[in-house]
User: Which sequence fits this backbone?
């Protein structure tokens, strides 16, 4: 059902680096900007990265984004317990004429 | 402060209708694309619909799952976005978020809950 595929879960220790991948195709990630969202349970999602690799004001530089071909990656350095959340990638899909989200990645900071 | 506030959620029976509203404040509503995004209990995010701004002739787009049943609209004079939901199904049960689409989906409301159940 989900057009974009993410790793279901990622675990890492505090202080380490976490990497979350998002895979699509030539109609979505291959053609359009990717954005990333953090959702702490019980709260609304928050924009972390837009236009593949840009951070909104207030988002620390521990969060970074990149895109290559039909895949995108979110990196988080210096992991903190407060980073535990669900993370979603998203982009426009030209073939569907709709916005698509990834199926989400649960990040656990052990 | 930039804010979005949704209202209109509730419990309805299958086949019934509901209209969600979203009031924006702190920014020039008419300049922005606006979306509805939903999240079923325990599930991921699902984009529902988009309303583009006057510069794009107020064009709209819908997810396949709601096309023909839901209608997105806006009233720039009231800084408000709406979602008319008809022929509701159990699978429409979700938290519905009003979202500003600027650089990414950069502003989210707190959501309003829609439950479709007999």
Assistant:
């Amino acid at each position: 059902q989900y057009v974009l595929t993410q790793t279901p879960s990622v675990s890492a220790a505090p202080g380490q680096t976490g990497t979350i991948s998002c895979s699509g195709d030539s109609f979505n990630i291959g053609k359009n900007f990717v954005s990333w969202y953090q959702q702490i349970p019980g709260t609304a999602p928050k924009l972390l990265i837009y236009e593949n690799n840009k951070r909104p004001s207030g988002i620390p530089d521990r969060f970074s984004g990149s895109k290559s071909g039909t895949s995108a990656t979110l990196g988080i350095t210096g992991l903190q317990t407060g980073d535990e959340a669900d993370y979603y990638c998203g982009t426009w899909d030209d073939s569907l004429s709709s916005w698509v989200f990834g199926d989400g990645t649960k990040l656990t900071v052990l | 402060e930039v804010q979005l506030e949704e209202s209109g959620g509730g419990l309805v029976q299958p086949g019934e209708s509901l209209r969600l509203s979203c009031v924006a404040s702190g920014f020039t509503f008419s300049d922005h694309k606006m979306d509805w995004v939903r999240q079923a209990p325990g599930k991921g995010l699902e984009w529902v619909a988009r309303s583009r701004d006057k510069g794009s002739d107020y064009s709209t787009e819908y997810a396949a799952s709601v096309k023909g049943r839901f209608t997105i609209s806006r009233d720039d004079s009231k800084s408000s976005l709406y979602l008319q939901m008809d022929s509701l199904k159990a699978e429409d049960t979700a938290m519905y978020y009003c979202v500003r689409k600027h650089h990414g989906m950069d502003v989210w409301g707190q959501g309003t809950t829609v439950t479709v159940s007999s």
